[in-house]
Design goal:
With 473 residues, this protein is of the alpha/beta class. Helices cover 35% and strands 21% of the residues. The chain contains 16 helices and 22 strands. The strands form five sheets. It has a six-stranded parallel beta sheet with strand order 9-10-8-11-12-13, with helices on both faces. The longest helix has 29 residues. The chain starts with 5 loop residues before the first helix and ends with a helix.
Length: 473
């Protein structure tokens, strides 16, 4: 619940109360009238040629606690009298705002301040969602975190407004597609701890250079709360010029403040002794990927900066789980292993995924690779380099789509359906398959089709075996 008074909400949102409801507080914020079930505060956002205010009446009919819409839409709603005239839901609140999106964002900032929780903001070219997932798992107490891709100027405030009273730590992922967007998110979230996982050739098409990407990520540094702590890689690369005179800096990886001093990986798990600013601590992680160990170092740095001991963090390491489509292992039994990592892709994450695939103890390895988006004028070169890496690792490549042909693939598929057929023809107990590409490639369809076919085949085989045993008995 958003436990603020109506007056506090109106003041925070810069909105006028046009109609008053029956009281209480909203359960949560919502921007999709189809998802209103009762008790929500609906924001009629405008964008492009769409006007969410058109659906405010539907939201009220579905039981919304109130709506935030433009002054014009608010006037239409109350035209029938002191209550929302055509809403079918007397007793609902109607707020009139010159900018419903800005009102959403400023209400989120007000609720963040009311919660007085420690806020950890996480951004970076690669790994920010995994670092968010790991941080959420490691932190004790009442923790609320971004869901999957709720990391934009809309998703982040919705995440904050979903945080229940009593939340002690907010873990917020911050996405970026252009200059000023990280600053916008930081102004809303006011992070106490900031994490920049890395800077790589992502969004170059939009920003023009990796240096510009680094500058955009560094907006988090200058928009932290006073006395905030920044967590950055030991080898920060393009980010280094932005780290001069930054107080409270913690570096992870390499020879940094949070680093691995002992390591063993076996049976899909990682055991590591990790040095921190509070001494060393043994951790046992439920994954084997080297890049997720690096992500864990960033998360541990954030946890220590937030005031937790390494021992408290280590006690919860076995609860680490990742968001959908991120290094998801699907064991198909005698049909092989699928590594579903198709949420996104760029040269850094693609190389890490291929190197992990090469380590897996299966004789045959296939990588189903879609395009890497938003790489700018050098996009073909980046794809060619990844293809060279795959060949050096002795990984066969099935490319999907036109740009992906630059990988120099062994097999070329025009779409995910064709790629799924090619994989299906090659399945077997000795095979590991990586599925990876930017979201625009739609490679989750490959995993869906291959998994469904393989499970069907296994079921038929089991049934045939059972019938044979019955006949023999």
């Amino acid at each position: 619940m958003i436990e603020l008074t109506t007056e506090q909400m109106a003041a925070a949102m810069g909105a006028d109360v046009i109609a008053r409801g029956s009281g209480g507080v909203p359960e949560r914020a919502e921007i999709d009238s189809r998802k209103v079930e009762g008790g929500e505060l609906f924001f009629g956002l405008t964008g492009g040629q769409s006007d969410g205010g058109e659906h405010a009446a539907n939201a009220l009919e579905s039981g919304a606690w109130g709506v935030v819409v433009s002054h014009e839409r608010a006037a239409e709603l109350v035209a029938g009298g002191p209550e929302p005239g055509n809403s079918g839901a007397p007793g609902a609140f109607v707020f009139a705002s010159p900018d419903p999106l800005l009102s959403l964002q400023m209400l989120a900032r007000a609720w963040r301040r009311e919660l007085d929780a420690t806020v950890i903001g996480i951004t970076g070219s690669v790994g920010k969602t995994s670092v968010k997932d790991i941080t959420r798992a490691l932190l004790p107490g009442e923790v609320h975190a971004s869901a999957e891709n709720f990391n934009t100027e809309i998703g982040l405030p919705l995440t904050i407004l979903e945080a229940p009273a009593g939340t002690e730590t907010l873990v917020l992922e911050m996405a970026m597609r252009g200059e000023g967007q990280i600053a916008e998110l930081a102004v809303i979230a006011e992070p106490d701890v900031g994490v920049i996982t890395n800077v790589g050739p992502v969004h170059v098409e939009l920003l023009g250079s990796i240096e510009a990407v680094a500058a955009a990520k560094a907006e988090l540094i200058v928009n932290m709360r006073p006395e905030g702590v920044m967590i950055v890689p030991f080898e920060a690369g393009y980010l280094d010029p932005h780290l001069e005179n930054v107080p409270g800096l913690i570096r992870f990886g390499g020879e940094g403040d949070v680093r691995v001093i002992e390591l063993s990986v076996e049976n899909g798990a990682t055991k590591a002794r990790i040095e921190t600013l509070q001494g060393s601590q043994a951790f046992e992680f439920p994954f084997a990927e080297p890049h997720n160990l690096t992500n864990s170092l960033a998360a541990i740095g954030a946890g220590v900066a937030a005031g937790f001991t390494p021992a408290e963090l280590a006690a919860r390491a076995d609860g680490i789980a990742f968001s959908r489509f991120r290094n998801e292992h699907i064991d198909l039994g005698d049909r092989g292993l699928i590594i579903n990592d198709c949420y996104n892709a760029n040269p850094v994450s693609m190389r890490a995924a291929l190197e992990y695939l090469a380590q897996i103890d299966r004789p045959r390895k296939i990588a189903v690779l879609g395009l890497m988006a938003e790489l700018g004028p050098d996009e073909v070169r980046f794809h060619e380099e990844i293809g060279e890496i795959a060949r050096g690792l002795e990984v066969d490549v099935i490319s999907v789509g036109d740009l992906a042909r630059a990988y120099g693939a062994d097999l070329k598929a025009g779409d995910p359906e064709e790629a799924a057929r090619l994989v299906d023809e090659r399945l077997g107990p000795d095979l590991a398959v990586l599925v990876k590409g930017s979201r625009a490639a739609g490679l989750e369809r490959v995993t869906e089709l291959v998994t469904a076919t393989a499970k069907g085949t296994n079921a038929e085989t089991a049934a045939a075996s059972s019938e044979s045993e019955a006949a023999g008995g």
